[in-house]
Design a protein that fits this description.
Layout lengths: L1 E7 L5 E7 L11 H20 L6 E5 L2 E5 L5 H21 L4 E7 L1
Parallel strand pairs: 1-5
Antiparallel strand pairs: 1-2, 2-4, 3-4
Helix pairs in contact: 1-2
Amino acid sequence: MIRVDFYTLPEGGLLGFQMEGHAGMGEAGEDIVCAAVSSAAYLTVNTITDVLAVTPLQLRAREGEMALRIGQRDEPACRVTLAGLKLHLLGLEEQYPESIRVSYMEM
């Protein structure tokens, strides 16, 4: 199962995410849930770091694991990008509840 934790502010803003695990929906290279999650996560990270030019407080990407955390002052600039990732992952969780779990961690 892929576990995703979004880092949230008390008022609901998003400061990033951490995700780990594998969906287990197919063989390596053929798992559509893993591919969808990975692609969305990399799009989000690349948009924040390379398009918005935000320097994250934390950035880690390894096999089966990714994490991004931004500072509170960067939250307004990253709001739409992180909200889009959250919406996408919640949709995947609804379609594949046995493969992905989204939760929240208040910072």
